[in-house]
Design brief:
homodimer, 350 residues, alpha/beta, five-stranded mixed beta barrel, three-stranded mixed β-sheet
Chain lengths: 350, 350
Amino acid sequence: MAGGVGSRFWPMSRQAHPKQFLDILGTGKSFIRQTYERFAEFIPDSNFLVVTNANYKTEVLRQIPELDIDQVLCEPLGRNTAPCIAYAAYRLLAQDPEATMIVTPSDHYTSNQEVFKSVILNAADFADNNRALVTIGIRPNRPATGYGYIQVADTPVQNGVNKVKTFTEKPTLEVARAFLDSGDFFWNSGIFIWSVKTIIDAFEKWLPEIDSLFKSIADDYGKPSEREAIAKIYPECRNISIDYGIMEKTPDAYVICSDFGWSDIGTWESLYQNSRLTFDQNVANENTFAYNTTGTIIKVPSDKLVVVEGLKDYIVVESDNVLLICRRENEQNIKQFVEDVKLKKGNKFI
Amino acid sequence: MAGGVGSRFWPMSRQAHPKQFLDILGTGKSFIRQTYERFAEFIPDSNFLVVTNANYKTEVLRQIPELDIDQVLCEPLGRNTAPCIAYAAYRLLAQDPEATMIVTPSDHYTSNQEVFKSVILNAADFADNNRALVTIGIRPNRPATGYGYIQVADTPVQNGVNKVKTFTEKPTLEVARAFLDSGDFFWNSGIFIWSVKTIIDAFEKWLPEIDSLFKSIADDYGKPSEREAIAKIYPECRNISIDYGIMEKTPDAYVICSDFGWSDIGTWESLYQNSRLTFDQNVANENTFAYNTTGTIIKVPSDKLVVVEGLKDYIVVESDNVLLICRRENEQNIKQFVEDVKLKKGNKFI
């Protein structure tokens, strides 16, 4: 899933160049490229599908040249994760009705590839042999309020797989602390594993309107007419997430809980937490000269020199035609800044 | 005089593009262009001479297309103001031995053109009719420690002209306060007015080595051989200022004291003091969105958008390949930052 348009990492992320295509962590690889490589270790190139906005098709193929053009499914507009997943599921059904499907965001970070691989393969094996909608839960290490939580049922079904008891959206800090203490709440990673049959059954049952729309163009998948057919039905789909539309309702939800150093890097704060820090606790590259500066994230193009003096706990980002300087504790205001800029200056800087 | 290479406004000023060529105040005109226009109101174009580094010749002519190429005198290297003035004086002597000469820095600011013009014309008139080295003193309005001071003799010689009693280089704050209170100390504007004859007599008397060098190529001024002749003698000149070399020694120093809203804009602080401030007391253009930000100078290319949050009394400058963020109270450290950058990165950012 690579269709997102977020403003959270503005001005690094832009409408024309959202987070999944960026190397915000400075690893040398964008999130989508890292995501591809994470799976390519054990999944053949021909088995990938990328669902993205039509505007990003070229960028996807530029960043993952291993893919054929028809492996990039284009949404004419964003409708949240349920239609995105339905599209991929129906395309897969046309290609291989016995397929097992792994759904993943393309803008997350993981650090432990060995654990990641074994968890995914375990989930795929379980989904292959059971009527199961499996999600991956991440053992929390702090009372994060920005994530969804999954409560697991007490007794494991088998080999690390549990039934899901409840899903909870972003909790308050107090609730998050209680979740952390209880030990049976896990972060919802947004990674799902299921057989094509099981997810399509679930669409039929829980999101029948979306299901009918995608069924109505069954003859078009994988053919030249697919693009036009999708363009016709997509705007009619409800804007709804797979969590809200199916996972929170189905009795077939399972979770495998693990810890492979996951983060959605959804905030500058999580970027800070997941970055290698300098001696002065800054995030900065070798072109940065920092004086009396601590706890500060400095992200500028690699050919730019930065001299900072006297900053404590700031975000400094320059990207293309925009410079942003903001206190780390106030990053939640950036969304509003972007709105203000849009209102006064139009889309030029968005 | 347009040969200076300063690092004080780094990164706006660079070795390749020093302060005199910049529009640091955001007026739409560079300092050198403003300086030209200030005098062009009462001096014909053909009477200007610009002394600058050979590397800046093209830029001078680009910014003052009213000048002919042979009105730009090129120094092969910088040797402070005394050789610069000697060069112009000897060139003038060859062209018009009866000339009156006005010497001015090209990177200062004045706000009151009427007063300026009348002071200069008064000085020129006095210098025309007397053996006088006239300098312009500025009535101080604060105990500035960054300027040289001129103490005037008690009795005016005539019409606003006084004898100079002493010159004092940058004083301590305590001394500057005493100067301000006493009422007979004025800032040294670096503007001089004298007849060509008088200044050449002064060079003969007080800087005879420099004088001999420029006399030795008397046949070359205004001819194609001038460039080569200057290239030969210039490196042999002492590096010395006109103040130290002549003005502080001569008994013929006079001063006209006035107040035409002068500043050398030698520091970010003086830029701040001489800029139009926003409602929040910032220096910022209409492409700046400032939140909880006061007392901050924001200077970036005009096509750049800036969003700042939570800055108080900072300098934020972006220019070409460099971003500088520094507390206003620590601007004196910028010189050191530039040294550090030079040491680690070479001249690429200098």
